[in-house]
Amino acid sequence: MRVTGTGHASMRIDTAAGSILCDPWVNPAYFASWFPFPDNSLLDWESLGQVDYLYVSHLHRDHFDAKHLRDFVSKDATVLLPEFPTSEMEDEFRALGFTKFLKAPNEQVVELPGGLKIMIQALTSPTDGPIGDSSLWVEYDGVRLLNQNDARPTDLSVFAELGHVHAHLLQFSGAIWYPMVYELPQAAKTAFGKQKRDRQFDRTWRYIDDLKASHVFPIAGPPCFLDDALWQFNDIHGDEGNIFPDQSVFLSEYAKVGGTNGIVLLPGSVAEVTTEGASTTHPVPVQEFFANKVAHLEEMRERKRPIIEAEKASWRHPEVDVLGEMKRRIEPLLDESIYLAKGVGGPVRFDLVGYDGESVESIVVDFPGKEVRPYAEEKVRYRFRTDRSLIEHLLFIDEVDWVNSLFLSCRFSAARIGQYNEFVYAFFKCLSEERLQYAEGWYDEHERTTDAEDITLGDWVVQRRCPHLKADLTRFGIVEGDQLTCQLHGWRFDLPSGRCLTSVGHKVRAHRVDAETPAPAGEAVI
Length: 526
Known about the structure:
The protein is α+β, with helices and mostly antiparallel strands.
């Protein structure tokens, strides 16, 4: 099995029975804030795009690059579709000219012509990707590969049970706006960033240890930030709180925990994977490339500057009545929302900075009142500040996912009172009837599901599944004193009260080993 690195989470997998191109991303994403690093735009995409199969893990724009898919990937390729709850991914592929689809049943091995086998695991909670994420398992002639990319499954046993995996490709770096955009003292940002960076690596080590593959390939990050306004987000400034470590840092950190089987793929690197080992060739020496990272980034910044400026010039739509359009689009969804509106629980404010860089219009999405209206000087739990032109553009293109556009762009600042609230971001990625109905149904189902099984962690008996996204706490749970941390997403719980310390709306059932069994989670804890 030959694996050719094509940048970020992208790769081409070649076997004698066929080729699969995965997640090709080349063009800037999220309001031209994210670029692939190392740069992959100079690869021979005319050839790389001539494949038998195409797999895109999810609809995040650093994985689903519509322009590149339209221009460079053969329309004769069969698209391997995860079993997602909505038809959005297939609809988008069809709009680009793809006509051949294989809808892979979730977690079922499918044998393709020539003996090539694949299995796709789809993750379908409202917080997975835009509205779903997935991993791809491939086997040919006894060689097995798992492309986990960004996905965070609670359990890798479904893959391990199919036989020893020889190549495990997974994310290790950050892909979020936290904590950089929050209006906090720099010392607090650094502390929170370091915590997140450490959790990212801890989660990666856990996945690697679970699968025990022959070789580990760090992929799916980090992006680079070439706009001058975002340049500080690149991990080149000696900031221990930067959440975007690169592949060379991965190798260094991996070595500290005993890892010796890591392989980096640069764009154009080729790994020949067999049951006996892996040999890799690179277009340039890996260590030398990352030693000159700053120079590479500076060269990219100048080369890509015209692209960024052209993108910025397209965002202004002064003809758009922002308040009126937000009311038209969002109020019907607020009327239909039960779980998300209740979960947000208060007004969310958008401060829109005018073209002059000074004037501000403040608009409130009032979840309890089910309306969008001008700010009335009330206290809000969440506040976002961004350029008016960005909201104009989202409304102009009828964007249904403001998370997979505005928030991932990091072109905003945020402030909040109290804990993180996942429902805020869940709502703003569901600005369509289809997405909202799915998310509401998902939360309704999980609200009514009682997790009856308990486990013992240290001095505490706790429910086996994390209240957040049902991670198995026998594997991801760590108890320190009276606090439980689920390492899958870093959520923390106060065990004596059961209260979630990370977000609102979640509670864990717990009691000390030598105490009586308490009331079920959700009921009063005395």
